[in-house]
């Protein structure tokens, strides 16, 4: 399974009542594929406010996204949680709905050791025929999948990728030891260029909601041997890459999308809309 170089971690559009806005979800999917050149979409990931979505809402989003994308890009379902049995259940439901792969976040709050992490991911992978992308984001989970555990998990046939947010250094170590066919994505927009330079395959992005086409050009330039052009694009986009995370994600990107005419609504509690100052700073990023 090739998920492509540019994967967008899609926001979940909500209406004024805080319910999923299906019409706007459809518009957003079309826009991300056609205008922002996303190769794949992560549905119900962190940027999609997965902690506030019910299982019923998640399955409805998986089903709708598969049908709306209609083969134009891959759909990766966020089915990970800190309960192995729950993750297996949601992964199996996603598989029935026709998704192309699943994203499994490291278990949060209960903080398993490395053997627990291995057993967790191995059990979920064995429950499905879908390709699995691991997701290491220690800032959010308070646990980090070590490079040795990643390389051990990479020996499992349907564990094919990782979204790595620990460091570019860790990406380099994993790339050096990974088996053929196992690919690495950075989950940090600002690290996309350096990460690819040391062996990452692509990026799972938030900024691609707004500048996906330019990010695709940046990646293509680097891979095509035009490092100076890629660096110039990186420098141009860097303020946006960093600025979108001055508020808790996805507060800023949702506000920016609304300003761009994609009415994805606000965020669900416990997240809150940007302050006036934060809103002004987000608008400044869009100029």
Itemize the secondary structure elements and their pairings:
Elements: E1 6-9, H1 22-34, E2 40-43, H2 55-69, E3 74-78, H3 84-96, E4 101-105, H4 114-126, E5 132-136, H5 138-141, H6 147-153, E6 159-164, H7 168-177, E7 183-186, H8 192-197, E8 202-205, H9 208-223, H10 227-243, H11 251-259, H12 276-285
Parallel strand pairs: 1-2, 1-8, 2-3, 3-4, 4-5, 5-6, 6-7, 7-8
Helix pairs in contact: 1-2, 3-4, 4-6, 6-7, 9-10, 11-12
Overall strand count: 8
Mean pLDDT: 98
User: Percentage of helical residues?
Assistant: 40-55%
The backbone outline, from C-alpha atoms, is globular
**Mind describing the biggest β-sheet?**
8 strands, parallel, barrel
What spatial order of strands do you see in the largest sheet? Answer: 1-2-3-4-5-6-7-8
Tally of individual helices: 12
Radius of gyration: 18 Å
- Helices and strands, in order, run as EHEHEHEHEHHEHEHEHHHH
Ranges where pLDDT stays below 50 over 5 or more residues in a row are: none
Label the structural class. Answer: alpha/beta
Residue fraction in strands: 5-15%
End-to-end separation in angstroms reads 37 Å
